[in-house]
Amino acid sequence: MNSSDSDLQIAGDLLEVQHLLRPAPEHPATVAEFVGLARTIAADRDRWAPLVRYDATTRWYHRLHTGPGYEVWLLSWVPGQGSGLHDHGPSSGVLTVLDGELTERTDRGKRTLGAGAQRVFAPGYVHEVVNDSLEPAVSLHVYYPGLTDMPMHAAQCAPAAATA
Questions:
Q1: Is 91 exposed, middle or buried (0-12, 13-18, 19+ CB in 10 A)?
Q2: How far apart are CA 95 and CA 31, in angstroms?
Q3: Which of 34, 76, 77, 155 is deepest in the core (most CB within 10 A)?
Q4: What pTM was estimated for this model as a whole?
Q5: Cβ neighbours around 143 below 10 Å, total
Q6: Could you give the CA distance from residue 111 to residue 106 in angstroms, rounded to a whole number?
Q7: Segment 63-108, tens digit of pLDDT
Q8: 64 with 73: CB under 8 angstroms?
Q9: Strand order in the sheet with 101-106
Q10: Alpha carbon distance 51, 37 (integer Å)
């Protein structure tokens, strides 16, 4: 046997070499793992769909899960509801649209997010999320560290035209 042969080369299929697979982390620690957590929860509709409520007077939200230093929130949005322009203080986050369609507005423009779309953001990222559609929407939000502050921002106004 050549010294460059590894267990993987010999077996030919990583899934057949169980001792080489890293165990799934109990709790996420990287951006990719938080994105993966959000996708896993999104795929488990039986877990989140029965919890969703719609409230015409305010956005509805429910803390779905917590782990060491992070939390997962489920939100619903009826048509016309929005978050207002805000950031998430010291928290990073993953926003995943579970159902319906949301619009994200930033100083760079707006983006329509359909079911399955994800946005990842760092601390200090300023945006507004709005349900501009005619149907309700549901989203999942993962925050690390857990959300302790959500500073609101004044809407950005276009600069006034210069007068001659």
A1: buried
A2: 12
A3: 77
A4: 0.80
A5: 23
A6: 9
A7: 999 999 999 999 999 999 999 999 999 999 999 999 999 999 999 9
A8: yes
A9: 109-114, 101-106, 128-130
A10: 18
